[in-house]
Amino acid sequence: MNTQNITITLSETKKEKPQSDQLEFGQVFTDHMFMMDYTEELGWHDPRIVPYQPITLDPASMIFHYGQSVFEGLKAYLTEDERILLFRPEKNFQRLNKSNDRLCIPEIDEELALTALKQLIETDREWIPTAEGTSLYIRPFVISTEPYLGVAPSGSYKFIMILSPVGSYYKEGIHPVKIAVETQFVRAVNGGTGTAKTGGNYASSLKAQEVSGKMGYSQVLWLDGVEKKYIEEVGSMNVFFKINGEIITPALNGSILQGVTRTSIIELLKYWNIPVTERRISMEEVRQAHKNGTLEEAFGTGTAAVISPIGEFFWQDEKLLINEGKTGELSKKLYDTLTGIQRGKLEDPLDWVVEVTKASSLSTVR
Ligand SMILES: *Cc1c(COP(=O)(O)O)cnc(C)c1O
């Protein structure tokens, strides 16, 4: 695919931008969006940046019925010297294609997607918020659009990217959350769609979230779908433990989503020569570690919060308080390092950051 084919139609009006210190998550969107279509005849075609606008779909479009869709989530940051940085964006487009493959959606040219994203961000660069801790959240997604009620992969799709300026995840600094261990519902099973970023996984997670929310917990800890013994993820984040000096994260087992943050933390720990183990870990092992005083830290990892320390687990009528409910040393160090690299404040020793420059993509303005 010739990446120079991306066309731009600029918006005639500009929306009012929100105050950058009053931003929440995912509520306002920028002036433009990227869109590209797929048909069996033409393949992926007509990559274009257009004014942000509603899309019209036939009510029989397959996305409304059988949920054949995938998405991604990443962020762009504005540095103090006004450079725009992305964090390992190629990983997100690789994962998008892994998700596409699982959902029978045709592969997308990853290079084109990244070029288009840079172009879109460049077009809406005034929307990148500047206040401490804020960023521009990027949501690429694919929907199936063929009007057909038969159960089969759709013959047509739209790949869309939208941008949303978002506030600081931690308004009063990084702080631990309380987690209920989910014993009734499961998120994913081996052989299912847990390794793909697809809307259905989120739809099926809402019930557990609602129940635990009513109990005063902010997220659930997901156990494996077969024995409900082994730890998988926390909310929509990957999870890490520090037990007796060992850093442990559940091994990728066919139902865990491979987070870019998870991968980066493993690589960073190895770079620091801190031992990190990917293995099976049961909730019983965590309880035992708590009991004998070796459960030092637990935290979730994901693009939105980066690191989310866990202050308490609730499991089988028992409350396990971790590190007196305070943020652990390692959690804090990982948070400071990752956010420092992402925002261009710290050196980038593993070459993760990608800069968006005017020259990083060529296109024709229509
Ligand atoms: C997106 C996601 C994550 C985190 O992935 P990152 O790439 O680190 O943002 C973890 N678990 C689930 C289920 C997810 O959907």
TrEMBL record:
Protein name: Branched-chain-amino-acid aminotransferase
NCBIfam families: ilvE_II, PRK13357.1
SUPFAM superfamilies linked: D-aminoacid aminotransferase-like PLP-dependent enzymes (SSF56752)
EC assignment: 2.6.1.42
UniProt-listed Pfam families: Aminotran_4
Record flagged with keyword Membrane: no
GO molecular function: L-isoleucine-2-oxoglutarate transaminase activity; L-leucine-2-oxoglutarate transaminase activity; L-valine-2-oxoglutarate transaminase activity
Class in the EC hierarchy, top level: transferase
Alphabetic keyword roster: Amino-acid biosynthesis, Aminotransferase, Branched-chain amino acid biosynthesis, Pyridoxal phosphate, Transferase
Residues the record lists as N6-(pyridoxal phosphate)lysine modifications: 197
Family per record: Belongs to the class-IV pyridoxal-phosphate-dependent aminotransferase family.
Organism of derivation: Peribacillus cavernae
GO biological process assignments: isoleucine biosynthetic process; L-leucine biosynthetic process; L-valine biosynthetic process
Claim: Acyltransferase is one of the keywords in the record: no
Pathway: Amino-acid biosynthesis; L-isoleucine biosynthesis; L-isoleucine from 2-oxobutanoate: step 4/4; Amino-acid biosynthesis; L-valine biosynthesis; L-valine from pyruvate: step 4/4; Amino-acid biosynthesis; L-leucine biosynthesis; L-leucine from 3-methyl-2-oxobutanoate: step 4/4
Catalytic activity annotation: L-leucine + 2-oxoglutarate = 4-methyl-2-oxopentanoate + L-glutamate; L-isoleucine + 2-oxoglutarate = (S)-3-methyl-2-oxopentanoate + L-glutamate; L-valine + 2-oxoglutarate = 3-methyl-2-oxobutanoate + L-glutamate
Cofactor: pyridoxal 5'-phosphate
